[in-house]
Specification:
about 40% helix, alpha/beta, binds NADP nicotinamide-adenine-dinucleotide phosphate, globular, eight-stranded mixed beta sheet
């Protein structure tokens, strides 16, 4: 699979590039070519240091989206509508788009934002994509440092075939287990995991908490 990591210059994009590059063609996207190139070089160097195969490519977000079968929208929840519309115009029809985004607020504690989930909003802004909600609670920085994290990743989508494909890709990441959690509307629960984990971090003092269902 050729995978585009939109906004892949952040921690999540770099973690996924490291995890998938040994078996897939991975492209890091950015709004700026130089940032994409620097992140891709950093990942390729880390792969080499760890004795893993794989080369990480790069480009502008729209260019990597156009060239790929699957995208991860690794950007903040404040991303604007025009950005999402331009990606939708660039992608291949029915391309899979993974939404790892989790909007939350912080007041007396972390809380999810009210209303539809980001993934539901994304499926309206990118009608040509098949949206799969996944990876919200994935501790990306820990995965980069340790090369693996034992945790469960709930996934939700209205498209069965896309769910299968994303589940297989997640299962390839060392020690991650994908768990089906229902149709796309269930993304409201998946996105709520992030403020829950942040509260656990703040109130229980666990440094990089992750989900494990037993
Ligand atoms: N970090 C984690 O552990 C983790 C785990 C699971 C899920 N997530 C979710 O995944 C997403 C990315 O997380 P991250 O920590 O990697 O985030 P990040 O570093 O804050 O953002 C990722 C990239 O998004 C791009 N970006 C920033 N503002 C943008 C805008 N207005 N429009 C378009 N692109 C923009 C930037 O890339 P350029 O400047 O290079 O374009 C930035 O490097 C977030 O929604 C987060 O909630 C994060």
């Amino acid at each position: 699979v050729r995978i585009a990591l939109i906004g892949g210059t952040g921690a999540l994009g770099r973690a996924l590039a490291l995890g998938w590059a040994p078996r897939h063609e991975v492209l890091i996207g950015s709004r700026e070519e130089a940032r994409a190139e620097a992140a891709a070089r950093r990942c390729s160097r880390l792969l080499e240091e760890r004795g893993l195969k794989g080369d990480v490519g790069h480009g502008l977000n729209e260019a990597v989206a156009r060239a790929s079968d699957l995208l991860v929208l690794s950007v903040p929840h404040t991303v604007d509508e025009a950005f999402l519309r331009s990606l939708d115009a660039a992608i291949r029809p029915r391309a899979i788009c993974i939404s790892p985004v989790a909007p939350f607020s912080r007041n007396s504690c972390y809380l999810p934002l009210q209303g539809p989930s980001f993934a539901e909003r994304l499926s309206r802004s990118m009608p040509r994509a098949r949206v799969v909600s996944a990876l919200q609670g994935f501790p990306a920085q820990r995965f980069i440092s340790e090369g693996r994290v034992e945790c469960d990743i709930p996934i939700a989508s209205d498209d069965e075939e896309a769910l299968d494909e994303v589940a297989s890709l997640i299962a390839e990441l060392p020690s991650l287990r994908p768990l089906r959690a229902g149709p796309l509307i269930a993304s409201r629960l998946l996105e709520g995991l992030v403020p829950l984990l942040l509260n656990i971090m703040a109130y229980s003092g666990i440094r990089s908490p992750a989900l494990k269902v037993v």
